[in-house]
Amino acid sequence: MYELLVPLAGTAWVEQGSSSGEIGPGSMVLCDIDRPLTFAHGDDLVGISFLMPGRNVAGRSRVAAGGPHMLSGANGLGRVVRQLTTTLHEEREQLSE
Q1: Tens of pLDDT, residues 21-50
Q2: Residue 92: DSSP 8-state
Q3: Burial zone of 87 (CB within 10 Å; 0-12 exposed, 13-18 middle, 19+ buried)
């Protein structure tokens, strides 16, 4: 399983294996949740967590299988993914299963 963490406010520290970094609004991180992970944050963190099957991620990108991957949500595909994730969260009451 993979988790896409999308902060809306505040910051968090993510560490997995030899990779680590801080995420905040405008950034995201993709983590393999089947491996040990350190996730630390303050009381001000507000975010969205999106879980997806590992075969959907690893099957499309061998790079993603190494996780975690810090991603910019400021432009390009990262911005599209961040906007899609936040819009789905905002509209969740208006969508059917």
Answers
A1: 899 999 999 888 888 989 999 999 999 998
A2: G
A3: exposed
- Widest CA span of the chain, in angstroms? 41
Supply φ then ψ for residue 18, to 5 degrees.
-90, 0
CB 30 within 8 A of CB 52: no
For the whole model, what pTM was predicted?
A: 0.81
Which residues are 3's β-sheet partners? 31, 51
Classify strands 19-23 and 2-9 as parallel, antiparallel or unpaired: unpaired
Backbone angles phi, psi at 49, to 5 degrees: -120, 125
Q: Is 45 exposed, middle or buried (0-12, 13-18, 19+ CB in 10 A)?
A: middle
Residue 33 three-state SS: coil
Going by C-beta distance under 8 Å and a sequence separation of 6 or more, which residues neighbour residue 96? none
